[in-house]
Design brief:
By secondary structure, the chain is mainly alpha-helical. It has one domain (5-210). It contains nine helices and three strands. The chain has helices at 8-14, 17-22, 31-39, 59-66, 81-86, 105-124, 138-142, 152-168, 180-189, and strands spanning 41-42, 47-50, 53-55. A three-stranded antiparallel β-sheet has the order 1-2-3. The longest helix has 20 residues, at 105-124. Pfam families: PMD.
Length: 211
């Protein structure tokens, strides 16, 4: 789904523009490397058990690598009657069309909402439904101007913790993607594990204030 210039102001207000920029530059996932770290994940402490001690991904890492806000309201919700009625229905993000140049501002806002739903479902909170977006995000995008007041960084980190804990507890066999946050953290904290000749500027570890 292409990022149109007229959508950028809405992404900036939502605190998701840096993530949207990274969306086009995600690196190839090193599954053996990521799996090796997940095997060292300890659910009881939410840390990686390493030979030198314990370490973990922090909110600071999320803020620097994904540029997400880590202050604000908690991202939570409830099962409304509407949500329970449409539970199991997830629109495919391939249905979203490119924004027309002469689109009205209201159309741009609708497109921005769709883009943000795609971004949340495929980059931060992806599950095994692959190309589908979850309708749990509708209440948030409906209040587009309020999205920047939420701690999306904390929610993304909690989601990653939850997924890794499920794998560690052997409840599932595969970790739902994306895992770029975990891998970029590995590259940032363990430079010797970067591929040979891999330039630091090519992976998504970047302080948003410096971009």
């Amino acid at each position: 789904m292409p990022l149109h210039d007229r959508v950028i102001p809405y992404l900036e207000r939502a605190g998701l523009y840096h993530l949207a920029r990274l969306n086009a530059h995600w690196f190839r996932l090193d599954e053996p490397l990521v799996s090796a770290f997940i095997e060292r994940w300890r659910p009881e402490t939410h840390t990686f058990h390493m030979p030198f001690g314990e370490c973990t991904i922090t909110l600071q890492d999320v803020a620097y690598q994904l540029g997400l806000p880590v202050d604000g309201h908690a991202v939570s919700g409830c099962m409304t009657d509407f949500h329970m009625h449409i539970e199991g229905t997830k629109p495919a993000w391939e249905w979203f069309e490119e924004l027309f140049v002469d689109a009205s501002e209201e159309t741009v806002r609708i497109y921005a909402r769709a883009y943000i739903m795609m971004l949340l479902s495929t980059q931060l909170f992806m599950d095994k439904s692959a190309n589908r977006v979850h309708l749990r995000w509708l209440p948030f995008v409906a209040r587009l101007d309020d999205m920047g007041n939420y701690s999306w960084g904390a929610a993304a980190l909690a989601w990653l913790y939850r997924c890794m804990c499920r794998v560690a507890n052997r409840n599932v066999t595969n970790l739902a993607r994306p895992l770029q946050l975990l891998q970029s953290w590995i590259f940032w904290r363990f430079p010797t594990l970067r591929p040979p000749g891999f330039p630091p500027s090519s992976f998504c570890v970047e302080c948003p204030e410096s971009s």
